[in-house]
Write a structure and sequence with these properties.
9 helices; disordered C terminus; 13 strands; about 40% helix; about 375 residues; six-stranded antiparallel β-sheet; alpha+beta
Length: about 375
């Protein structure tokens, strides 16, 4: 059985255009269903709907901008018709079922060419395919060339079948989004691993040029310690597909780890707030380097403080040891640790300042960064 050809019109009749048409069409595009191949799961739904009504035709339609496209068409061999005029186009105007028990006597359909023309449509029952956010994508409908009575139980079953169609669309959308998210996360992980490997390579290069090296075994032990620090930063930075992450939450996890490793109390405090994920590696490695240095050369507990004031950020690591010499200049230090810290501060577009612990005895290392400056990955 075939529908007669209905030519697409240059303008759609305004009285069959939903008030939220632009948003509705965005929802249609969201599901990427238009012009997709036939699908057995949808064909089974139309076969069930036709059998439930004892009718020859059932269709799952998607109402496009200027056409009505059939995702499944049981009992007809056409794939689309023009939107104006169309019973499915009218059926999406409401969330209720659109039913014509005898279209030849129903004033809503007398002018419809499928009713008035050779096709001779007499019965139509359609329910909208309504998404969870309230947009009608199209309809599940049943059609016959003979008038017929309809029972509420049949309409209820048609609504349930329409819900199954929408559930299928939602599941496919969720699956597609999950794949896209997985691909995005895989690319992000690859990027982070590459940055980490580049950083490790830089560490080893700096280590090989160190002037304070004792012997090869000591060099290897120190290099292994810093490679382990990179792994520790990654372990405490849970994978995320967001562009920003809570800095203080990350620092608390990292400091709890460092407290056990270094055997001293290490506490992270400060301001809540997110930072770009690209900042986490240099922030974590800075914290690791300064905390391990404080545990080695300082005394008492180690305090890590993160402050945020708009775009201005500050990371401080303070100990309770003897402090640093009054004329200490980190930029002139030949020690590998200070060179690593200085390099990491530069990655954040920041500045390293060393002084006395403002809370009393000990040293305090502060890195001011942010303030709208770009961060260069490792």
């Amino acid at each position: 059985m075939a529908f007669p050809k209905v030519h697409q019109m240059s303008a759609i009749t305004l009285d069959i255009m939903p008030a939220n048409e632009a948003e509705r069409m965005a929802a249609v595009r969201r599901y990427e269903i238009l012009d997709t191949p036939p699908d057995g799961s949808f064909d089974r739904v139309t076969a069930l709907a036709a059998r439930r009504f004892g009718a020859p035709i059932s269709i799952i339609s998607i109402v496009d901008h200027d056409r009505i496209w059939f995702k499944s068409h049981h009992g007809v061999d056409v794939q689309e018709i023009g939107r104006d005029p169309g019973l499915c186009a009218s059926a999406i105007l409401s969330s209720e079922a659109h039913v014509l028990v005898d279209a030849s006597t129903d004033p809503r359909s007398l002018a419809n060419p499928l009713v008035a023309g050779d096709f001779g449509l007499r019965f139509y029952a359609g329910v909208p395919l309504e998404t969870s956010d309230g947009f009608n994508l199209g309809t599940l409908c049943v059609i016959d060339k003979a008038p017929r009575p309809v029972e509420q139980a049949q309409i209820d079953d048609l609504k349930d079948l329409a819900s199954l169609v929408v559930d299928q669309l939602e599941l496919r959308l969720a699956a597609r989004q999950a794949v896209e998210k997985a691909e995005l996360m895989a690319r992000e992980i690859d990027h982070r691993v590459m940055n980490s490997l580049q950083f490790v390579s830089g560490l080893l290069t700096m280590q090989s040029r160190s002037t304070d090296a004792a012997d090869a075994s000591a060099q290897l032990r120190e290099a292994a310690t810093r490679v382990a620090a990179v792994a520790r930063v990654h372990r405490n930075f849970y994978s995320t597909d967001t562009e920003e992450v809570s800095c203080l939450t990350f620092l608390r996890r990292l400091c709890a780890d460092l407290s056990e490793i270094c055997g001293v109390e290490v506490e992270a405090t400060g301001d809540e707030g997110n930072v770009p994920t690209t900042w986490i590696q240099p922030i974590g490695l800075l914290t690791n380097e300064l905390v391990t240095n404080a545990a080695k050369h300082g005394a008492g507990s180690v305090g890590v403080v993160y402050k945020a004031d708009g775009d201005a950020r500050q990371l401080s690591v303070c100990d309770e040891g003897e402090g640093v010499p009054h004329d200490f200049d980190p930029g002139q230090s030949t020690g590998l640790g200070m060179r690593v810290v200085s390099q990491l501060a530069k990655q954040l577009g920041g500045k390293l300042v060393v002084g006395q612990n403002p809370a009393g005895k000990g040293a305090c290392f502060q890195i001011a960064f942010g303030q709208g400056l770009a961060v260069h990955p490792a």
